[in-house]
């Protein structure tokens, strides 16, 4: 993997509190814009990992971490929304393998408490917990090497970037030209009346499911996939329990023949691989990082794809579906279902079908909608924004260019 083909990293300091789309825009918009403008390439696609440092997990021990899913997914949705708005303004394509001047962005949450102090002899290592979110030391130990590393010009931005670089020392050789400071925004933090109060914590589950077409994987898809991954109850290495299961129903090719611009729909195999490759960026933890360029190992069985991560503790299963229900009415032990606003009614229909079979109802979680209007100083043309988060619009653009699928 050449240096230009490596992803770049933008480290964003602690998010504003209270967390709103307006406060996120004020805090992160300048930094995201600078990073996107820097990594875009006229000669090919670029990748950007946006790592948001925040105290997202509760619990003192690695085996008993908890999180507030609504807060976590709202933060991820806000960042992906900002990325989509900025890319619409800058004429940057956002889908995976989007070609020249495209940026494939991935949002990662890093659990970190600004009041945490490490001993002077602390040695960073990969220490996963029972969630898919990792701490700063684990992130620095498993996510590398980078093309550029962007840090925010602020006191907090300097603190978190220096912490990352300290933990990453010795894992990659960095030139000064690769370390790029970018403009910071205005971060609002309103003191709580009860500083010890925390948001209600969310249960995690051994088996989580969602469904979609995932054609030309874009920020809306990435939000859905990330939000569902946050609900996984990950076993610790060596625990005598099966791996947690992330079951993703991906619409079969036959069901998409009547889609608009159907000739540009990616094949099921391509869509499933893109889903697994994206999730690998969130779930895999390797002491070698990705410097050997080895892609995730995918096992194909009966037309479905399976991949495992974190020493076999997480199993991702991409299932080919030919109806609206998919594995939710064929796999009884699924506990949680993640939906978008467009598929909200599907969650109720699934539970009605499961009730007919005498099965337990699924806990249904709905992700936020990526929205341009609330984060814009000047209104973005709806069609421009929609093109960044709509598979149909992406296919239409390719048809207008007379291009191919890739």
Please sum up the structure shown:
It comes from Chaetomium fimeti. The protein is of the alpha/beta class.
Describe the structure.
The protein has a single domain (3-189, 200-366), classed as 3-Layer(aba) Sandwich (Rossmann fold), CATH 3.40.50.620. The chain has helices at 21-39, 69-90, 136-142, 155-168, 219-229, 268-283, 344-356, 382-388, 391-401, and strands at 8-12, 46-54, 57-58, 66-67, 103-111, 134-135, 149-152, 179-182, 207-212, 244-251, 299-301, 304-309, 314-321, 336-339, 363-366. The protein is α/β, with parallel strands linked by helices and 406 residues long. Residues 374-380 have low confidence and may be disordered. The relative contact order is 0.15. The longest helix has 22 residues, at 69-90. α1 links the parallel β1 and β2. 30% of the residues lie in helices and 19% in strands. The chain is built from 9 helices and 15 strands. The strands form 3 sheets. The protein has a 7-stranded mixed sheet with strand order 11-12-13-10-9-14-15, with helices on both faces. Residues 210-396 form the Cytidyltransferase-like domain. This is Cytidyltransferase-like domain-containing protein. One of its GO terms (molecular function) is dephospho-CoA kinase activity. It comes from Chaetomium fimeti. It holds the Pfam family CTP_transf_like.
């Amino acid at each position: 993997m050449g240096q230009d083909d490596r992803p770049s990293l933008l480290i964003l300091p602690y998010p504003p509190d209270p967390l709103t789309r307006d406060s996120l825009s004020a805090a992160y918009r300048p930094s995201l814009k600078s990073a996107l403008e820097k990594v875009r390439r006229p000669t090919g696609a670029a990748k950007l990992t946006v790592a948001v440092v925040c105290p997202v997990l509760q619990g003192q021990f690695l085996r008993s971490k908890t999180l507030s899913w609504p807060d976590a997914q709202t933060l991820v949705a806000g960042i992906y929304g900002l990325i989509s708005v900025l890319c619409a303004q800058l004429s940057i394509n956002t889908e995976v393998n989007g070609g020249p001047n495209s940026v494939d962005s991935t949002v990662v949450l890093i659990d970190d408490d600004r009041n945490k102090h490490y001993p002077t002899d602390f040695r960073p290592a990969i220490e996963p917990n029972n969630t898919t979110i990792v701490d700063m030391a684990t992130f620095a130990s498993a996510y590398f090497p980078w093309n550029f590393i962007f840090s925010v010009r602020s006191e907090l931005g300097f603190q978190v970037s220096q912490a990352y670089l300290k933990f990453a020392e010795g894992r990659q050789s960095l030139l000064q030209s690769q370390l790029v400071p970018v403009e910071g925004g205005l971060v609002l933090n309103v003191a709580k009346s009860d500083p010890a109060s925390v948001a209600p914590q969310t249960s995690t589950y051994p088996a989580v499911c969602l469904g979609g077409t995932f054609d030309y994987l874009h920020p809306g898809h990435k939000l859905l996939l990330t939000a569902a991954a946050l609900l996984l109850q990950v076993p610790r290495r060596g625990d005598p329990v099966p791996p947690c299961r992330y079951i993703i129903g991906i619409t079969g090719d036959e069901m998409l023949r009547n889609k608009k611009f159907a000739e540009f729909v990616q094949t099921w195999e391509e869509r499933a691989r893109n889903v697994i490759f994206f999730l690998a960026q969130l779930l895999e933890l390797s002491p070698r990082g990705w410097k050997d360029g080895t892609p995730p190992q995918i096992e194909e069985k009966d037309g479905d794809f399976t991949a495992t991560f974190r020493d076999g503790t997480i199993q991702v299963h991409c299932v080919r579906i030919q109806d609206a229900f998919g594995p939710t009415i064929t796999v009884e032990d699924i506990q949680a279902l993640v939906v978008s606003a467009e598929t909200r009614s599907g969650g109720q229909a699934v539970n009605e079908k499961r009730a007919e079979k005498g099965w337990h109802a699924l806990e249904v979680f709905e992700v936020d909608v990526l929205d341009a209007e609330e984060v814009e100083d000047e209104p973005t043309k709806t069609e421009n924004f929609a093109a960044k988060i709509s598979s149909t619009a992406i296919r239409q653009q390719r048809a207008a260019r007379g291009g191919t699928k890739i």
